[in-house]
Amino acid sequence: MDDVAADPSHPRYQSLLLRHRLEQAEQQGLLAGSAMIAHGRGEAYDYLLGEQTIASAHLATLYAVDALKRASRPVLSLNGNAVALAGEALLKLAEHLDCPVEINIFYRTPERMKALLGRLEAIKSELNLEVEILGAEPNARIPGLKGPRAKCTQEGIIDADVILVPLEDGDRCEALVAMGKTVIVIDLNPLSRSAKMGSITIVDELTRVAQNMLELVQHEQIFEPESPYNNDENLAEALRHIVMRFNA
Ligand code: ATP
Ligand code: MG
Fold this sequence. Notes:
This protein is of the alpha/beta class and 248 residues long. It has one domain: 3-Layer(aba) Sandwich (Rossmann fold), CATH 3.40.50.12640. Helix content is 54%, strand content 11%. It contains eleven helices and eight strands. The chain has helices at residues 3-6, 13-27, 35-49, 55-70, 80-97, 110-127, 154-158, 170-178, 193-197, 206-217, 231-247, and strands at 74-78, 101-103, 133-134, 140-141, 151-152, 162-166, 182-186, 200-202. The strands form two sheets. The chain has a six-stranded parallel sheet, sandwiched between helices. Strands 4-5 form a two-stranded antiparallel ribbon. Helix 9 (193-197) links the parallel strand 7 and strand 8 (200-202). It starts with a helix and ends with a helix. The model has no long low-confidence stretch (mean pLDDT 94). Bound molecules: adenosine-5'-triphosphate and magnesium ion. Adenosine-5'-triphosphate binds next to helix 3 and helix 9.
């Protein structure tokens, strides 16, 4: 990393750090060609949100962790950006939840799958984690999707009742909801199709969400919400937050 990106006092340190992680992941073959574009779109929304976990995102995270804890078969679905940015935290989260992770990528090639599996296995052994990693040998398809991006595993995504999909594409999110699953989306863009389709959408940056979830999952406290969760209201709150920041 160059000097600026290595200096935590730099005002754009976090942003530079995440970009650096993606640059490295790109060199290691973990990412699709469009990964940087997707990240850039996320960065733009994060700028508008003030690069912070806003109150409505925190609330959505509470509901999401509660749903994952209560699930009978939770699974964390990981794509290239998710592994590159938050692979460690997401594997730790899976261990706490005692659930598998499944690599589920839009642009599937044997090389990318091998690179992603290698990265996750390396994190697992370095941190001494007990987590099942699925996705290497898909044996099922997500109904309603065409092509390689429909491939998945029966014991992971198909049989899951609650599924965490960071940075998911809208189509696949819709297909998972149509299967009757509780779909937890992490997406900085409150206007994206994924955000609108999700059962619980956390409008926040993935690495912040992963840390927040890790802290919450270790609490034994029972979450007793005052009202049922309303995703449309939650997305509207995120948009209101953006407008209020610029009116202030
Ligand atoms: P749609 O959901 O409308 O179908 P899409 O998923 O095809 O759109 P992409 O640009 O491919 O759109 O997806 C990237 C999405 O992920 C964007 O909405 C972006 O805001 C979000 N995103 C990118 N990086 C992050 C991140 N680090 N944390 C949270 N969200 C992110
Ligand atoms: Mg999306």
